[in-house]
Amino acid sequence: MFLSLTNSVALFLIVFKYFNRPIFWFVLWLSAVCIFTTVIAEKLREPGAARKVEWERMALAIFAVVFFLYATKVYPAIKHEFGGGSPIPIVLHLTKQMPPFESDTVYASLIDETESGYYVSRSAGNAVFVTRSLVEALEFLHSEQTAQPSPPKPYTSPLF
Protein backbone atom coordinates (compact mmCIF):
# COMPACT_ATOMS: atom_id res chain seq x y z
CA MET A 1 0.00 0.00 0.00
CA PHE A 2 2.92 2.34 0.76
CA LEU A 3 4.38 1.69 -2.69
CA SER A 4 1.03 2.40 -4.34
CA LEU A 5 0.68 5.65 -2.42
CA THR A 6 4.23 6.66 -3.35
CA ASN A 7 3.56 5.93 -7.04
CA SER A 8 0.36 7.98 -6.93
CA VAL A 9 2.12 10.96 -5.38
CA ALA A 10 4.91 10.64 -7.96
CA LEU A 11 2.33 10.58 -10.75
CA PHE A 12 0.68 13.76 -9.49
CA LEU A 13 4.03 15.53 -9.09
CA ILE A 14 5.18 14.55 -12.59
CA VAL A 15 1.90 15.58 -14.20
CA PHE A 16 1.89 18.84 -12.22
CA LYS A 17 5.46 19.73 -13.14
CA TYR A 18 5.78 18.52 -16.75
CA PHE A 19 2.28 18.74 -18.23
CA ASN A 20 -0.16 21.59 -18.57
CA ARG A 21 -2.55 22.35 -15.72
CA PRO A 22 -5.78 21.12 -17.36
CA ILE A 23 -4.30 17.62 -17.66
CA PHE A 24 -3.24 17.75 -14.00
CA TRP A 25 -6.74 18.76 -12.91
CA PHE A 26 -8.31 16.08 -15.10
CA VAL A 27 -6.06 13.38 -13.59
CA LEU A 28 -6.82 14.68 -10.09
CA TRP A 29 -10.58 14.74 -10.80
CA LEU A 30 -10.52 11.24 -12.28
CA SER A 31 -8.54 9.97 -9.30
CA ALA A 32 -11.04 11.53 -6.88
CA VAL A 33 -13.92 9.82 -8.69
CA CYS A 34 -12.07 6.49 -8.53
CA ILE A 35 -11.28 6.87 -4.83
CA PHE A 36 -14.87 7.80 -4.00
CA THR A 37 -16.16 4.85 -6.03
CA THR A 38 -13.81 2.49 -4.19
CA VAL A 39 -14.90 3.84 -0.79
CA ILE A 40 -18.57 3.40 -1.66
CA ALA A 41 -17.95 -0.13 -2.99
CA GLU A 42 -16.21 -1.04 0.28
CA LYS A 43 -19.13 0.29 2.30
CA LEU A 44 -21.59 -1.75 0.23
CA ARG A 45 -19.61 -4.99 0.46
CA GLU A 46 -21.29 -6.07 3.71
CA PRO A 47 -25.07 -5.60 3.89
CA GLY A 48 -25.08 -4.85 7.63
CA ALA A 49 -22.29 -2.28 7.40
CA ALA A 50 -24.13 -0.31 4.71
CA ARG A 51 -26.90 0.55 7.18
CA LYS A 52 -24.45 2.09 9.65
CA VAL A 53 -22.99 4.61 7.18
CA GLU A 54 -24.36 8.16 7.11
CA TRP A 55 -24.89 8.25 3.35
CA GLU A 56 -26.27 11.79 3.31
CA ARG A 57 -23.07 13.32 4.67
CA MET A 58 -20.83 11.13 2.54
CA ALA A 59 -22.80 11.84 -0.66
CA LEU A 60 -22.83 15.57 0.06
CA ALA A 61 -19.05 15.67 0.47
CA ILE A 62 -18.40 13.44 -2.54
CA PHE A 63 -20.73 15.34 -4.88
CA ALA A 64 -19.39 18.68 -3.72
CA VAL A 65 -15.78 17.73 -4.45
CA VAL A 66 -16.47 15.94 -7.73
CA PHE A 67 -18.77 18.60 -9.21
CA PHE A 68 -16.71 21.55 -7.93
CA LEU A 69 -13.49 20.17 -9.46
CA TYR A 70 -15.24 19.34 -12.72
CA ALA A 71 -17.05 22.67 -13.00
CA THR A 72 -14.08 24.88 -12.12
CA LYS A 73 -11.05 23.02 -13.47
CA VAL A 74 -11.97 20.32 -16.01
CA TYR A 75 -14.96 21.66 -18.00
CA PRO A 76 -13.47 25.11 -18.84
CA ALA A 77 -10.44 23.38 -20.41
CA ILE A 78 -12.49 21.18 -22.78
CA LYS A 79 -12.20 22.40 -26.37
CA HIS A 80 -15.38 23.38 -28.20
CA GLU A 81 -14.65 20.85 -30.93
CA PHE A 82 -15.46 17.97 -28.59
CA GLY A 83 -18.97 19.19 -27.96
CA GLY A 84 -19.71 20.26 -31.51
CA GLY A 85 -19.56 23.96 -30.70
CA SER A 86 -16.75 24.98 -33.01
CA PRO A 87 -17.41 26.13 -36.60
CA ILE A 88 -15.77 24.00 -39.29
CA PRO A 89 -13.81 25.77 -42.05
CA ILE A 90 -15.22 24.93 -45.49
CA VAL A 91 -15.32 26.03 -49.12
CA LEU A 92 -18.76 26.20 -50.70
CA HIS A 93 -19.00 25.73 -54.45
CA LEU A 94 -22.33 27.25 -55.40
CA THR A 95 -24.35 26.68 -58.57
CA LYS A 96 -24.81 30.46 -58.91
CA GLN A 97 -23.60 33.59 -57.20
CA MET A 98 -25.65 34.63 -54.16
CA PRO A 99 -26.06 38.24 -52.93
CA PRO A 100 -24.26 37.75 -49.57
CA PHE A 101 -21.21 36.31 -51.36
CA GLU A 102 -18.97 37.86 -54.03
CA SER A 103 -18.47 34.70 -56.08
CA ASP A 104 -19.67 31.16 -56.56
CA THR A 105 -16.71 29.81 -54.53
CA VAL A 106 -17.02 30.88 -50.89
CA TYR A 107 -14.64 30.41 -47.96
CA ALA A 108 -16.79 30.16 -44.84
CA SER A 109 -17.36 28.32 -41.58
CA LEU A 110 -20.02 25.66 -41.30
CA ILE A 111 -22.22 26.33 -38.27
CA ASP A 112 -24.91 23.69 -38.79
CA GLU A 113 -26.25 21.32 -41.43
CA THR A 114 -29.91 20.42 -41.80
CA GLU A 115 -31.91 18.38 -44.30
CA SER A 116 -32.77 21.50 -46.28
CA GLY A 117 -29.39 23.25 -46.27
CA TYR A 118 -26.38 24.71 -44.49
CA TYR A 119 -25.89 27.53 -42.01
CA VAL A 120 -22.58 29.18 -42.86
CA SER A 121 -20.75 32.20 -41.51
CA ARG A 122 -18.16 34.40 -43.19
CA SER A 123 -17.62 36.65 -40.18
CA ALA A 124 -18.29 36.41 -36.48
CA GLY A 125 -21.96 36.78 -35.66
CA ASN A 126 -23.33 36.81 -39.24
CA ALA A 127 -24.77 33.48 -40.40
CA VAL A 128 -26.44 32.81 -43.74
CA PHE A 129 -28.66 29.88 -44.69
CA VAL A 130 -27.81 28.26 -48.03
CA THR A 131 -30.23 25.70 -49.44
CA ARG A 132 -28.87 22.37 -50.66
CA SER A 133 -30.09 23.06 -54.19
CA LEU A 134 -27.66 26.00 -54.46
CA VAL A 135 -24.63 23.98 -53.26
CA GLU A 136 -22.75 22.10 -55.93
CA ALA A 137 -19.94 20.86 -53.65
CA LEU A 138 -18.72 21.37 -50.11
CA GLU A 139 -15.04 21.01 -49.15
CA PHE A 140 -13.85 20.64 -45.57
CA LEU A 141 -10.59 22.44 -44.82
CA HIS A 142 -7.91 22.35 -42.20
CA SER A 143 -8.07 25.45 -39.97
CA GLU A 144 -4.75 26.79 -41.36
CA GLN A 145 -6.14 26.76 -44.93
CA THR A 146 -8.94 29.27 -44.29
CA ALA A 147 -6.84 32.39 -44.95
CA GLN A 148 -5.60 31.26 -48.37
CA PRO A 149 -6.98 33.31 -51.27
CA SER A 150 -6.30 30.60 -53.87
CA PRO A 151 -8.62 27.60 -54.20
CA PRO A 152 -7.65 25.03 -51.58
CA LYS A 153 -6.80 21.39 -52.09
CA PRO A 154 -9.57 19.01 -51.08
CA TYR A 155 -9.26 17.61 -47.59
CA THR A 156 -7.69 14.18 -47.43
CA SER A 157 -7.69 12.18 -44.24
CA PRO A 158 -4.23 11.58 -42.73
CA LEU A 159 -5.30 7.98 -42.06
CA PHE A 160 -5.60 7.05 -45.74
- Counting DSSP E segments of at least 2 residues, the number of strands comes to 5
Order of helices and strands: HHHHEEEEE
User: Unreliable segments (pLDDT under 50, ≥5 consecutive)?
Assistant: 146-150
Total number of distinct structural domains: 2
Instruction: Note the total helix count.
Output: 4
Morphology call? elongated
Counting helices, strands and paired strands, the structural category is: alpha+beta
- The averaged pLDDT comes out at 83
The N- to C-terminal Cα distance equals: 47 Å
Largest sheet: 5 strands, antiparallel
Q: Please list the strands of the largest sheet in the order they lie side by side.
A: 4-3-2-1-5
CA radius of gyration:
25 Å
What is the secondary structure topology, with strand pairs?
Layout: H1 2-18, H2 21-45, H3 47-50, H4 55-74, E1 88-94, E2 105-113, E3 117-123, E4 126-131, E5 135-140
Antiparallel strand pairs: 1-2, 1-5, 2-3, 3-4
Helix pairs in contact: 2-4
